[in-house]
Amino acid sequence: MDGMGCIKMREAKDAEAVLKLSRRLSALAEWVPQGARFADIGTDHALLPVYLASQGRIGFAVAGDVHEGPVNAAKRQVAEAGLQEVVSVRLGDGMSVVAPGEVDTVTIAGMGGSLMARILEQAGERLDGVRTLVLSPHVAENTVRYWLADHSYLISDEKLLEEDGVIYTLIRAEYENDPQEVQAARDRLYDELLLAPSLPKISLGLVYEMGPLLLRNPSEEFHRKWEQEIAKRERVILQLKHATVPEAAEKAAEWEEDVKEIREVLACLRAEKRSSN
Predict the structure, then answer these.
(1) Which residues contact 181 (CB under 8 A, 6 or more apart)?
(2) Distance separating alpha carbons of residues 119 and 112, to the nearest angstrom
(3) CA distances to 44, 50, 86, 112 from 61, in Å
(4) Which residues, 6 or more positions from 203, have their beta carbon under 8 angstroms from its beta carbon?
(5) How far is CA 146 from CA 39, 76, 151, 191, 272, in A?
(6) For the chain, how far is it from start to end, CA to CA, in angstroms?
(7) CA 77 – CA 237 distance, rounded (Å)
(8) Cα separation of 271 and 198, whole Å?
């Protein structure tokens, strides 16, 4: 190795030593396959690509952001780490920063599920060759799960992680090109009988909301998240009951049914846990 190569390696190691990811970003990093050609959409300061590149975990990365400020900060971060040949920082909206076939793994985090689904939907052929999606929507997770199910991406892992008082949802999905396997796996994943016989049936919409794998292996964070969600929905119900518009009463009744079902699911899961101990 020549002197310049030694310097670049030392700079990358120095960057790894000083760069510390949040627990959420660390968890997302664990799901990025070794040797991936990687895109981080909404990269902010490019912490995730720089960390993965400094560890030798990825062969190439695109760090994209729609705002100039984060892009400039990301360029500085990459330059300070000496990783300009590995991490390409680009300004652009969503997946517009990558070319079709350029990457095989994409991470999107730190935004709502509706925006995340829109970015994926608008990606079109830029998702060609993308095998792995590593996602962390902070609201409307069901919107992301619906998009994945409709586009042959099968959820392979889900987890909830609490950091600084916020419970984050993390989802990993893998592309499957066999339509029959997609349908069979989707039927297994989103099974309304997944809690039977303890709970005869759970509505399909709630499976998408709560997470098919999270329901099968609920953590303490899962129970806290949904107790918080019940409290939020009950506040909305109260507001609807005081509203004067004709549709408010009907909407309040719908939300009350949702809360009732969520409570039934949580009670069922707690009973299953007690019986297994």
Answers:
(1) none
(2) 11
(3) 14, 9, 6, 23
(4) 192, 261
(5) 22, 37, 9, 14, 28
(6) 57
(7) 46
(8) 9
Residue 74 to residue 48: CA distance in whole angstroms: 10
pLDDT at 13 over 70: no
Pairing of strands 87-91, 36-41: unpaired
Residue 257's identity, in one-letter code, is E
- Burial classification of residue 223, based on how many CB atoms lie within 10 Å of its CB (0-12 exposed, 13-18 middle, 19 or more buried): middle
Q: How many CB atoms lie within 10 A of CB 210?
A: 23
Q: Tell me how far apart the alpha carbons of residues 216 and 26 are, in angstroms, rounded to a whole number.
A: 24
pTM above 0.85, yes or no: yes
User: DSSP string of 105-144?
Assistant: EEEEEEE-HHHHHHHHHHHGGGGTT--EEEEEESS-HHHH
How many percent of the chain have pLDDT more than 70? 92
Q: How many CB atoms lie within 10 A of CB 23?
A: 12
Give the DSSP letter string of 139-191.
S-HHHHHHHHHHTTEEEEEEEEEEETTEEEEEEEEEE---HHHHHHHHHHHT-
Q: The tokens of 257 are what?
A: 């049914």
The one-letter code for the residue type at 13 is: K
Distance, in Å, from the CA atom of 224 to the CA atom of 214, rounded to the nearest integer, reads: 13
- Those residues whose C-beta lies under 8 Å from the C-beta of residue 2, and which sit 6 or more positions away, are none
Strands in 153-163's sheet, in edge-to-edge order, are: 87-91, 58-65, 36-41, 105-111, 132-137, 166-175, 153-163
Q: C-alpha 4: how far from its chain's center?
A: 38
Give pLDDT tens digits for 33-85. 999 999 999 998 999 999 999 999 999 999 999 999 999 999 999 999 999 99
